[in-house]
Design a protein that fits this description.
Number of helices: 7
CATH topology: DHBP synthase
Low-confidence stretches: none
CATH class: Alpha Beta
Distance between the termini: 49 Å
Structural class: alpha/beta
CATH superfamily: DHBP synthase
Shape: globular
Strand order of the largest sheet: 1-8-2-3-7-4-6-5-9-10
Number of domains: 1
Number of strands: 10
Length: about 200
C-alpha cells in the first residue's frame, strides 16, 4: 500500500492507479473513501470484499459536474434544481439509472446515487478519469477513520493500492436524497438537513 502526500504529484499518482483499475483511498469533503474507476471492468466489484460489504448495499458515484452525472442517471427538473443549489457539496442525489450505463454498483440497480464533492482536487480527478465509485474507507459496521494514517491501518491487508493524505476529514457523511419525479425523500440526513432541502424545494416550486 502506497502512502501518498497532498501535492499534485500525489493526485496524479492516484489517477494513474485508478486508470489501471486499482483501488485508492482518498480524502473527500466529508469522510475518507475508497474509490474505483467505473470505466474499468471489474474494478467496482472489488470494493465490496475489501470492506466486508454485501452487494445488496450499493455504492455511490462521485462526479465532476452535472454533465458527468447525467451520463449515469436521468435527472428530473427537481434533481437538476437540487444539484444547482447544493453542488459542489455534501448532497448525494439518488436518481433513475440510464439504461446505457451497465456497471454493477450493487443494490437493485434501478437507481444510482451521484454527488459532486466540494473538493477541487477530487473534482479534477473525476474530470481526468471519469466517474469514481466511492464508499467510506472503513470495514462495514465500523467507524470511518478521520485521517490517512487511520485509513491505512483500518484497510491494511486489503487490495487498496494507495492512501492519499488529505489531512483530517470533516467526519460526517453526505446527506442522501432520492428524487422520484418532482418529489424528494431524505434517505440519510448529513451536513444538509431536511429543513435545508425543504427550503430549497419551496424556493423553486
Amino acid at each position: 500500500m502506497e502512502l501518498l502526500g497532498r501535492d499534485e504529484t500525489a493526485w496524479l499518482r492516484a489517477a494513474e492507479l485508478l486508470e489501471a483499475g486499482r483501488i485508492v483511498a482518498l480524502p473527500t469533503d466529508t469522510v475518507y473513501g475508497v474509490a474505483a474507476r467505473v470505466a474499468v471492468p471489474g474494478a467496482v466489484a472489488r470494493l465490496f470484499p475489501l470492506k466486508d460489504r454485501t452487494l445488496a448495499k450499493p455504492v455511490a458515484v462521485l462526479v465532476a459536474d452535472v454533465d458527468q452525472a447525467s451520463e449515469l442517471v436521468e435527472f428530473s427538473e427537481r434533481a437538476s434544481a437540487l444539484a444547482a443549489r447544493f453542488w459542489p457539496g455534501a448532497l448525494t442525489i439518488v436518481a433513475p439509472r440510464r439504461a446505457s450505463f451497465e456497471v454493477d454498483l450493487g443494490g437493485a440497480g434501478s437507481t444510482i446515487g451521484v454527488r459532486c464533492p466540494d473538493h477541487s482536487a477530487l473534482i479534477e480527478l473525476c474530470r481526468r478519469v471519469g466517474p469514481i465509485a466511492t464508499t467510506s474507507a472503513n470495514r462495514s459496521g465500523r467507524p470511518t477513520p478521520p485521517d490517512a494514517a487511520g485509513v491505512a491501518a483500518a484497510l491494511a491487508g486489503t487490495e487498496v493500492a494507495a492512501v492519499l493524505d488529505g489531512g483530517r476529514a470533516a467526519g460526517r457523511a453526505s446527506t442522501v436524497v432520492r428524487v422520484d419525479g418532482e418529489g424528494i425523500e431524505v434517505l440519510r440526513e448529513g451536513p444538509l438537513s431536511a429543513a435545508d432541502l425543504a427550503a430549497s424545494h419551496d424556493a423553486v416550486s
